[in-house]
């Protein structure tokens, strides 16, 4: 009987921060909204995979959905509204031009860190996302070249930069479709 339970996904459940997590939720979102939001930032996310009902009825909170994205988008538009000036004054083009000129990670690491952080904040508002999607800017090509530069560097700090680039690219590419 136990083997049949193991083969059935519905017979198992995931726990993160003592909350039962729906198997349909994306791991990245669970990490951000359940693990990091409740103080787990910096640590690896601990996930318990257990058989449902083995110790009686579950008493933990069941998380079936994460916060609605529309509410989050509205909040981002309000919180980061000052970032809209980057689209209006040509700031995004300047950031991309600077990124495209970086060739040496050792000498340009500080510039790269600040530029990526600023871009990361800029893509939180839809106006900047629309500008960055414009094909004449070459945003994706510039970000891919920067990604390649960071991958060639093996320091721990490069890992953080790579994650930032992927997050920025994910936002821009999701807006283009």
Question: Care to describe what's here?
Answer:
This is Protein purity of essence isoform x3. Pfam families: E3_UbLigase_R4. It comes from Triatoma infestans. With 177 residues, the protein is of the alpha+beta class. It has 2 domains: 2-66, no CATH class; 71-176. It contains 9 helices and 4 strands, in the order αββαββααααααα. It has helices at 2-7, 27-35, 69-79, 85-88, 91-101, 105-122, 126-133, 139-152, 156-176, and strands at residues 12-16, 19-21, 48-51, 61-63. A 4-stranded mixed beta sheet has the order 3-1-2-4. A hairpin with a 2-residue loop joins β1 and β2. α5 (91-101) runs antiparallel to α6.
Count the DSSP helices: 9
Largest sheet: 4 strands, mixed
Q: What multimeric state do the chains show?
A: single chain
How large is the share of residues in beta strands? Answer: 5-15%
Structural classification: alpha+beta
Q: What would the average pLDDT be, to the nearest integer?
A: 84
Low-confidence stretches: none
InterPro entries: E3_Ub_ligase_UBR4_C, UBR4-like
Protein name: Protein purity of essence isoform x3
Pfam families: E3_UbLigase_R4
Domain E3 ubiquitin ligase UBR4 C-terminal: 1-176
